[in-house]
Amino acid sequence: MKTHILYSDRLAGGKHWSMRMRRGTSLRLIDVEGGANVGVLFYNPENLLERYNAPDTLKCQHTYKLTKGHCLYSDMGRIFCSITDDSFGWHDTLCGNSFAKQVARQWGERDYQADRNEWLQNGHDAFLIEAAKYGLNKQDLAANLNLFSKITPDDVGGLSYAPVQSKAGDFVELRFEMDTIVLLHTCPHPLNPAADYPFNPVTYQIIKSEPVADDDLCKNACSENKRGFENNRLYYLGA
After folding, report:
1. What is the pTM of this model?
2. Residue 89, φ and ψ in degrees, nearest 5
3. DSSP state letter for 87
4. Cβ–Cβ contacts within 10 Å for residue 206, how many?
5. Which end of the chain is more exposed for a tag (fewer CB within 10 A), N or C?
6. Coil, helix or strand for 235?
7. Backbone angles phi, psi at 220, to 5 degrees
8. What is the Cα–Cα distance from 45 to 57, expressed in whole angstroms?
9. Which 8-state DSSP code applies to residue 210?
């Protein structure tokens, strides 16, 4: 079946963007050069107090990593979006964001006034800039998802940045089950050990989704996901 792309653009490395995704559309993110990281947060545009909940997303699906077949939950038990396709297979939702002090310590200090587009942005401040567009501030930032970043645990619970990360052309596709404000940035993962600040771009495409079928992988992956989809259906009754 031919993919119906409604919009496509590229986001350079170390930058940020946001958009309102409509229920019934999908967001496909493509790692252009390899080694990308895309920090993501989700909010309900009709109630900004409802936002992405990392603990519920993991515990109700009994997983540490996120990949195809998983759903991304709000703190109201509803599903923002489902991962319907994924060529990489491992996305981190534990390690959070980079911060200004960390970026300066690891890669030096550059600011926009002196360095323009070559300045070194951090994930926390990138989210704050986008959040402010919707009346949100730092108290509204939840634990975020890091797409395209594989983080492995050791036997005592320590976390490390895997030596093999996504390659050029890897992609992940999110199908939105609710209208959702999406905040995203392409700043490096906080555990990335690179000697130079990684400016890794991504292409993003907004796609018309197919209706959710009765045998949908994400909906039927576990009983909790079935309840999440039913919570969404109840939420939109009469809409």
Report:
1. 0.96
2. 95, 5
3. S
4. 18
5. N
6. helix
7. -100, 5
8. 20
9. P
